[in-house]
Amino acid sequence: MNQLSFHDRSRREFLRLGGLALPWLSAGSLGRTSASAADRVPSQTPGFGKAKRVILVFCCGGQSQFETWDPKPDAPAEIRGEFGAISTSVPGTFFGEHLPQVAKLADRFTVVRSMSHADLDHGSATYLALTGKYHRKISGNPPPMPTDEPTLGAALRAARRNKHFPYDAVHLNAPLLAPELPSAGQHAGFLGPAFEPLVIGNVSEVRMPLPDLAAQPDLPPVRMHDRQSLKRKLDGYVAELAKSPEARKAGTEYDQALALLDAPQSRAAFDLEQEPASLRDRYGRNQSGQALLLARRLAEAGLPLVTVFWSPSSRGQDQRPDETDAYGWDTHNDIFSSLKQHLLPRFDQGFSALVEDLDQRGMLEDTLVVCFGEFGRAPLVALEPKFAGSTPGRKHWANVYSQVFAGAGVGRGKVVGASDRFGGRPDGRRYGPWDTIATIYSSLGIDPSGHYRDLLDRPIPLSVGRPITELYRG
Q: Which strands form 53-58's sheet, in the order they lie side by side?
């Protein structure tokens, strides 16, 4: 299912529900925030307003905390697993042995080891991770619906539209499949097409991920503006047609496309060939590595939010076991071979390159980086007969897992929270995906307790969590 078919189906569903039987309702009214929210801006909250932009690295499928951020070297073998733990640049902090480059940079970010929630399936847990709110059908794989909560980038556009870029958010390596169909939580939901993030697939296959952005020699700026003028005149003759949901959607997409084509800085941001070959090599000449590099370029160009899906499918290895780019983090079986041969080497290279690159450019001072997934993996290593693979792995585990935060005032070399000695539950304070979303809003200078209005003019909270202030303290 591609993005267009999703919108077609969404439009029909909204018509069935009566949601689009309000032709007077505009995208502007959807994006209106409440006045009371502005009065509650917590400007004294640690980290508030420190970020000019955010880069999200979403490890879809459920990255195992045991083999990455929270190893348990003293636990029994059936919990510890096959891998060892290595020292990092922070004394007393250890990571999984296959993250040597990331371990050297541990003094530049903070790990939260006590994330926790109650959703145990990819689709609904992804929805929770990307919206900060539980899906109405917990622990399932629901299809995207027009009544869904908007993904973070769409809600951000509703809260504060970016005036310098045609989009407020971009999804790279998208759409995310969980495992075979597009997951809920990555669309604009009830906010509608005008708030959709820009979706880009495999950025490593071509020089420019959006080839149509390349300047055309036979289309100088004067002709571009002539076309825009003609479009405005035609729009004046079809005012009645513009009341149609299909016409409104087409008009929105056309305007956004023209804005991208008309802005040289926008076109340039997508051209990876402008980067030195050595830096492209440093990130890794693979799908996720080049997506991280593009994320840095888009952030540098002023885009507020870029989400990189680390692999477009949570279990792509089932269909393409010989393609490393296809591997997702859903390692029910064969976890150690999958991590060692496919997932961790590229993640170690790419994520360390992103943090290092941002820091060397001075961008880490005002860029928030969050590395997270929908949940983690279970303490017990065991073979699951219902899944592909011949060696043991780990089940889904949402009771405790890890996330990583860097930049925009986040403490360096810190660990916030802890799991118990077997990695089965938080040892002390718990944090949830709702708190991650609240932290992102606060970092961007937006009160996470603010609201926008839905189709029925009801106030919808931006977040139901609170910023993780412990990231910034101590």
A: 198-200, 169-172, 305-309, 53-58, 367-372, 401-406, 110-115, 414-416
